[in-house]
Structure formats: C-alpha cells, structure tokens
Amino acid sequence: MGSEMSTKRMGGMGKLSDFGKSPTSPVSEISPAVPDVVVTSTEVVAPKIVTKAAPKKVAEDKLVTVNIKIKRSQQEWLADTAQAIRSNNTEPVSPSDRVFPQHLIGLAIELLKNADVKWDEIKTVKDLKQYLNL
C-alpha cells in the first residue's frame, strides 16, 4: 500500500524509475508536413530605406603624454606667454579654444615640421640653431 500512496500523492505521476520510459501505447512516427502548394517563383520588394549621412569628423591625432625636460626659464616663458594669450580675450572662450603651454609646444613642433630644414644634414641642436639662425 505504501507505493500506491506515493503515486497518488504525486498526482499519478508514477514511480521515479519509470521516468523517461515510453507509455504502454505504441507511438506512431510523425512525418514532416508536406506543403499543399509549391511556389515556383517569388518576387520580393525591398522597402525603401532612407538614411542620413552622418557628418564626417576630421580625423584627429590622439593626444599622448610626453615627459620632457626644459629649462626653468623656458617653462616660465611658456606659462607666461600662454597666460598673455588667454588674457587677450575680452569675451569668454570655450575650453577647447583656450591656449596653454602644451599648445605652444605643439605649435613649435608644427613650425619645425614645416621649416625648410635639410634634416639629413643636422647632427646636433647647435646645427639646427645655426640653420634656423637662432
């Protein structure tokens, strides 16, 4: 009677050992459905998609940190010059347009890149100064 009670309490599910076994009635195989209509050709009309071109951004070099050693007088001149340039503005200037010493160093690099220097002839900083008449 103990096994009959356990199956009744479990909602008639049967024994755990019977789990996964096929029922007593034979199972018929299910055949895949065969369509009644055969499609010989189709015409697909793609919806018209309107896209707006994103504004092209100018490819900008990524900023990197450079640790350089310069004379204290050069550092003070950079700071003073950048401050003087910022002080020239009577109207507020957006942060991206404000001048700081790093901008002056970047401009000095651009000046050197655009200078008409025969770099294959330069061997020292002294040579470069003489070439640039400094």
What features would you describe in this structure?
This protein is an all-alpha fold and 134 residues long. The chain has a domain at 72-131. The chain is 34% helix and 0% strand. It has four helices and no strands. It has helices at 2-9, 72-87, 101-114, 125-131. Helix 2 (72-87) packs across helix 3 (101-114). The mean pLDDT is 78.
Structure summarized in a few sentences:
The chain is mainly alpha-helical and 134 residues long. 34% of the residues lie in helices and 0% in strands. The longest helix is centred in the middle third of the chain and has 16 residues.
**Beta-strand segment tally:** 0
- Overall, the morphology is elongated
Indicate the mean pLDDT: 78
- Estimate percent helicity: 25-40%
- Low-pLDDT residue spans: none
Note the total helix count. Answer: 4
Distance between the termini: 112 Å
What structural class results from the helix and strand content? mainly alpha
Strand content: under 5%
Major sheet description: none
Radius of gyration, Cα only, in angstroms?
41 Å
Order of helices and strands: HHHH
Draw up the topology in text:
Elements: H1 2-9, H2 72-87, H3 101-114, H4 125-131
Helix pairs in contact: 2-3
